[in-house]
Amino acid sequence: YKIPEGTFNFSDGWLTKVFKRNNLKSRYTYGESASVDITTESIQSEISKIQNILKDYTAENILNFDETGLFYQQAPRRTICSEPLGGLKNSKKRLTVGLLCNATGTYKGHPIVIGNSKHPKCFDTRARLLAKTAVGNTHHVEYHHSPKAWMTLEIFTLYVKKLDAAFRRQGRNVALLLDNASVHKITLKLTNIVLVFLPANTTSKLQALDAGIIANFKAHFRAAQYDRALSQYLTSQLNNPYEMDQVQAMIYIATAWKKVNPETIANCWRH
């Protein structure tokens, strides 16, 4: 649509119709995919090598693992109100969450959660039970710790070792797609997993978990968090109803991951 030159006046209705005819909306921008060029010769060469490896695997046996940071006490940045409303101080309580799924959405590994404390005060018997579940149980989480609550080479090595053993018991061979972060460069000899590393700085374009799966998981987590906050506010008038302990966050992480459906996962793999 060509906007007239010079000074002009237009009504809200005119502007609304222009937006509607041209499918214009106010949108958030996500990630860094707009700045990634995967058409270069070197990247295309790497992609061809990856495709050559993956051709020996069915979609059910092609997996992707990735981590994301989760500020589990974070209050929403926007709200609806009739007058100006003061916000809450941003919480810096953070966990790293690792997610694993295959290309069809028929397999979702249990979430791995990394905090900065070996034994958080809130960890009672129920929390420890959650933390020590077997690989493959999508209803629970596996807990680890590191000083900054980040993934480490040691944690990832232990995780993949357990995963490899589980697939070995099943007689299943899989290809595991990863970004090329140094913490993923394990030296462990694996029998049933082949690690396939994506080219540097291309995961926002090539990695399924970055294509909407993680965003969908976080949306489910926030929905549970905000429902709880509303209930807390209505019943006890807390100063900050968004606060929760790490046990509650881990329960919501497990629940949110369960709610990510196979169709969503499969669609993101096809991006």
Automatic annotation (TrEMBL):
One of its GO terms (cellular component) is nucleus. Keywords: DNA-binding, Homeobox. One of its GO terms (molecular function) is DNA binding. InterPro entries: CenT-Element_Derived, DDE_SF_endonuclease_dom. Transmembrane segments: none annotated. Residues 92-269 form the DDE-1 domain. This is Homeodomain-like DNA binding domain-containing transcription factor.
